[in-house]
Automatic annotation (TrEMBL):
The modification N6-(pyridoxal phosphate)lysine is found at residue 123. It comes from the Bacteria. Residues 103-403 form the Tryptophan synthase beta chain-like PALP domain. HAMAP family: D_Ser_dehydrat. InterPro entries: D_Ser_am_lyase (IPR011780), Ser/Thr_Dehydratase (IPR050147), Ser/Thr_deHydtase_PyrdxlP-BS (IPR000634), TrpB-like_PALP (IPR001926), TrpB-like_PALP_sf (IPR036052). Its EC number is 4.3.1.18. Pfam families: PALP. One of its GO terms (biological process) is D-serine catabolic process. It comes from Vreelandella songnenensis. PANTHER family: D-SERINE DEHYDRATASE (PTHR48078:SF9), THREONINE DEHYDRATASE, MITOCHONDRIAL-RELATED (PTHR48078). GO terms for molecular function: D-serine ammonia-lyase activity; hydro-lyase activity; pyridoxal phosphate binding. It catalyses: D-serine = pyruvate + NH4(+). This is Probable D-serine dehydratase. It is an enzyme of class 4 (lyase). The lineage of its organism: Bacteria, Pseudomonadati, Pseudomonadota, Gammaproteobacteria, Oceanospirillales.
Length: 450
């Protein structure tokens, strides 16, 4: 890491010449528009990963579908494909619009990753995918699997015996640990999850119940990941799921775009230049929202606009992209504490590669205060009956942010003429696994703020 440039930025931040950095430092809600966004056709060839890679990941998940039906019977309704509902949210559109003093968008959709099977969060996409990829490689290497085999064999004793000689390690704020822990333990791996201090107690308890080793840290996410990485390096036959730097996680998330295209089509939602799709994605380290945005750009090109949402206390991606220092700067470097009720987004330093990949693709990033996150949890519960965790509602105020943006800002996104035709899609990233009493506490806190 080049600390001299990093120090330079911090000095600038404190000198107060940069309005974006100033707003971040002061914990103010901010909308940052990406000045480096370019037409997708122009940059497609430059990307290190392409559409073929996304299709390969989708095909791998399809091969594992019979395994899921066998090992997780709750996945049988979708024939072993882990996918979430896409719902219209007219009532939420009205409530949120009224609360934020704007007009409701004509189309507001919610992608309910909160209700993904197995682990109830967006992490059921990338996290589970990476473990399957690793398991498949091991099975081939050890001569247990040949092309064309029925993948229900992954539930057999021979496979479990093989995986019991291998281990998987991950560092997490909670939800990635749940996804990796549950699938790894079921396949028969030894699995250890390093949890940051923000990880909820019930997430740790649930994992221990499933036979996962949980190591608790008093520090934040970056330290939990670093400790996990170190343990993995010391351990033979061990795979470390590196949430800060993993292309397989990223591709697992990207598959969502292929599935979403079908869902939009079956609900007769048009997506073209006149009818843009604006997708609001809560962002922690960046892999989840980055992978999905990457997939969406491949599917919809410039008709899709992706915006990330971060807590005001943990805007690591905004900070990294704006300064172009990416993972060489942390929110602590500008005086923020990285403490937020959005435990899934409590990340102080962005992924090592996602910000760079997003540079020409992303429309922008906005920040949301903890008070607003709590209030939005209550609003979505009252309007749509959805139980979401605070991280999962970060994208809900996004349509209002755009409608409050200046004409010039909208024009810079190519949305000046067509914003009123847009479909806003809020990616609701987690919630179904949260215990009822925790939901009730979130709701009470939010209700008091409405
Ligand atoms: C992890 C997580 C995110 C963000 O994903 P990243 O890959 O960390 O950016 C969003 N919402 C929830 C609920 C999460 O658990």
């Amino acid at each position: 890491m080049d600390t001299s440039t990093r120090k330079g930025w911090v000095d600038i931040a404190f000198a107060g010449t940069d309005t974006t950095l100033n707003a971040l430092r002061q914990g103010k809600e901010t909308l940052w528009l990406n000045p480096s966004r370019r037409p997708f056709d122009e940059i497609k060839q430059e990307l290190a990963l392409g559409f073929d890679d996304i299709e390969e990941a989708a095909a791998r998940l399809q091969r594992f579908a019979p395994y899921f039906v066998a090992a997780f019977p709750e996945t049988a309704t979708l024939e072993g494909i882990l996918e979430s509902p896409l719902i219209r949210a007219d009532s939420a559109a009205r409530r949120v619009a009224q609360w934020l003093d704007t007009a409701p968008p004509e189309h507001l959709l919610i992608k309910c990753d909160s209700h993904l099977p197995i682990s109830g969060s967006i992490k059921a996409r990338g996290g589970i995918y990476e473990v399957l990829l690793h398991a498949e490689k091991l099975a081939v290497t050890h001569g247990l699997l040949t092309p064309g085999d029925d993948y229900t064999c992954f539930a057999s004793e021979a496979f479990r015996t093989l995986f019991s000689q291998h281990s998987i390690v991950v560092g997490s704020t909670g939800n990635l640990g749940l996804s990796i822990g549950i699938i790894s333990a079921r396949l028969g791996f030894n699995v250890t999850v390093h949890m940051s201090a923000d990880a909820r107690t019930w997430k740790k308890a649930l994992l221990r119940e499933k036979g996962v080793q949980v190591v608790e840290h008093q520090s934040d996410y970056s330290v939990a990941v670093a400790q996990g990485r170190e343990e993995a390096l010391r351990t033979p036959r061990c795979h470390f799921v590196d949430d800060e730097d993993s292309t397989s996680l990223f591709l697992g998330y990207a598959v969502a775009a292929l599935r979403l295209k079908k869902q939009l089509h079956s609900q007769s939602i048009r997506v073209d230049n006149e009818h843009p799709l604006i997708v609001h994605l809560p962002c922690g380290v960046g892999g989840g929202p980055g992978g999905i945005a990457f997939g969406l750009k491949h599917v919809f090109g410039d008709s899709v606009h992706c915006l990330f949402a971060e807590p005001t206390h943990s805007p690591c991606m905004l900070l990294g992209m704006h300064t172009q220092l990416h993972n060489a700067i942390s929110v602590q470097d500008i005086g923020l504490d990285n403490l937020t009720c959005a435990d899934g987004l409590a990340v102080g330093r962005a992924s090592a590669f996602v910000g760079k990949v997003m540079e020409p693709l992303l429309d922008g990033i906005y920040t949301v205060s903890d008070e607003h996150l709590y209030a939005l949890v209550a609003l979505i519960k009252e309007s749509e009956g959805l139980d979401l965790e605070p991280s999962a509602v970060a994208g809900l105020p996004g349509f209002a942010r755009l409608s409050h943006a200046s004409t010039q800002e909208r024009a810079s996104l190519g949305l000046k003429e067509v914003l009123s035709n847009a479909t806003h899609l809020v990616w609701a990233t987690g919630g179904a696994m949260v215990p009822d009493e925790e939901h009730a506490a979130y709701y009470r806190q939010g209700k008091a703020l409405l």
